[in-house]
Design goal:
The protein is of the alpha+beta class. The chain has one domain. The protein is 39% helix and 29% strand. The chain has a four-stranded mixed sheet with strand order 1-2-3-4.
Length: 93
């Protein structure tokens, strides 16, 4: 997915104020990250290439962003003591 389309989908997802969302290529997929501006909380979601192929790239990214938004609204988990974030995985059925 190109950056402009991703940013558009992030805007449509309407994350709460103070939450930054980014995408990072990772092996066989993308890691989508929702993090607090202060960096003290966040959540990663691995969107596998298999899921993107099965559902279509746009719908898969949209569903993944919706799940991250739910977590952001509920309250992102704190960064672990080792500096890592909790991670969800969106795989192909």
């Amino acid at each position: 997915m190109d950056f402009q389309t991703f940013e558009h989908q992030v805007r449509l997802a309407a994350f709460p104020p103070g939450v930054r969302v980014s995408a990072h290529p990772e092996g066989a997929g993308w890691t989508l990250r929702a993090a607090s501006e202060d960096g003290r909380a966040g959540l990663n979601l691995l969107l596998t290439d298999g899921a993107a192929d099965m559902y279509g790239e746009g719908p898969a990214f949209s569903a993944a962003l919706a799940r991250l938004r739910q977590a952001a609204v509920a309250g992102l988990p704190p960064v672990r003591p080792d500096g890592t974030l909790d991670q969800l995985v969106f795989v192909r059925d």
